[in-house]
Each structure stands twice: as C-alpha cells, then as structure tokens.
Amino acid sequence: MRGKIIHIIYIGIVLILPSACKPGVPSEFIQPDDMEDILYDYYVSQGIASIPSVNSGDEDYKRDLYFNAVLKKHHVTRADFDSSLVYYYTRADHFVEICHNVQDRLSQDALDLGASEGEVERYTTHSLTGDTANVWEGSRCIMLIPYAPYNRFQFVQKADTSYHKGDHFILAFRSNYLYQSGAKDAIVYIALKYENDSIVSKVTRFSVSGDTQLRFDACDLKVKEVMGYFYLGAGNEKNTELKLLFLTDINFIRFHKQETDKSMKPANEVIKADTTKTIPDSVMKRQRHQFGVKPVSR
Q: What pLDDT does 77 receive?
C-alpha cells in the first residue's frame, strides 16, 4: 500500500514539474496581460489621434500625447515600456500570443460597431467544389514585426482537383499598422505556377492600413501550385519603439470560368480601399475621457 502511494505521489510530481518550470516573464518587465491591455488602448488611442479636427495641431504631437496618456492610465513609464518591448521582441512566443489577443479584441470591437463583411469575405464559406470559393490554406491572421525572422511569412500550397483551367483568382487581405513611429513598408508577393511550369507573379508594396487585392486573370492552363510571402521592412529606426503589422482576413478566392462569360476585361492589379469611417462625437468624447486626454489646440 505504501509503495502504491509513493508511486502516485511520484506521478503527481512528474505531471506538475513541466508546468512549474515553464518560464514566465521576469517581474521587472510588463506582464503579458498588462502588455495586452496597453497595446489595445494604444491602438484605439492612435485611431483617435489620427482623426482630423479644426484645431488638430501637429499629428505627431497628438500621437505622442495619446501614447503618454495610455501609459499614465496603466501606471507605466516610457522607460518601463521600452525595456519591456525589447524583452518581448526577443521572446516572440510571448509577444505573438499577446498580439493575437489584441487583434481578436479589435476585430470584436469592429463587429460590435456594426462592421459588415467585405465583398470578398462572402466567399469564405462557399464549398470548394462550387464556382467560387476561398481556397486559402494558411492562417487568416498573421502578425509581423520588423525583425528577422518574424518579419517574413512564406506560403506554399498545392492545387487540388477543385482548380480548373480558365480559373481566375483574387488574393485579398486587410493590413493594420500599429507603429509608434518610423516608416511603414511592407510587400506582398504571390506567384501561380501552371501545369506547364510557367509562372505568373505579382508584387506590391503597401504602407498604409487598409484593404489590398491582387487579381489574376483567367488562363487556359490549370494552376498546380500557389506560392508567395508577406514581408515587413525593418527600416533604420531604433528597436525600442513599437512596430507591428497585423494582416487579417486573408483570402485567396478562386473563380471558375462561367460558360456564359464573355471575353474578360483586364482587372486592376491592386485595389486599395479607404477604410476610414466617421466616428460620432459622443464616441470621441467617451474615448478621450477614457484616456484622460483633452482635445488638442495648439
């Protein structure tokens, strides 16, 4: 009986040790939950700061003002934030999870405010065997920071039997920059490899938050592979400032050629949409009060 009890205790210790030994964030740095709240409030505050007004003053001044208000709200100094950011940049496992949580909260906020699905998103639930379908196989949400290896996301996917000759395609995604300062410069590259090994590729830069689409016209050949990457440039700025790029709602839409289709007209290679929306004064006042910031007049 005694031996059985010792055996049970031993098993319990073995099960507990891995979780007990799991490294956490040192106490001198901002803890993950607190960092998530700070990044969330920072994103919201920068959206407020970017809204033009009659006495708007200098935009960089406004952004810095709101950033300081967020830090004050969370009782964190700029030095604490900078040192914690350097730590998280070297611990991407912690940082990626935090940023994904922030993105989930922002996406839910958008839905709560009545954001509607884009034109492309209507195809995401269609059957792969139908005339139109989202055939993207990767994650629909990607986070990039301008430091290797986390500044690049590559993708390769093989075509299956749902791809036909005469298909045309759209790669669509939404970009959200969360930058404290510095130049924003990202690239998306995508290539279609056809059954005769010929390749058609497209590449474009995007330096503002918004929607981007790359279109591929129909071809008489069948696609056998799709490949490409998203890349965020590092720039020359110091690495103690916040620089994040969220890529969300990533879709690769495949359209089958219709029998009734006429000759197809060339489509624009890249389409960007202005996603800025007017925020009611009542919401503006409530959000300014949340961060303890008065309207700027300089």
A: 93
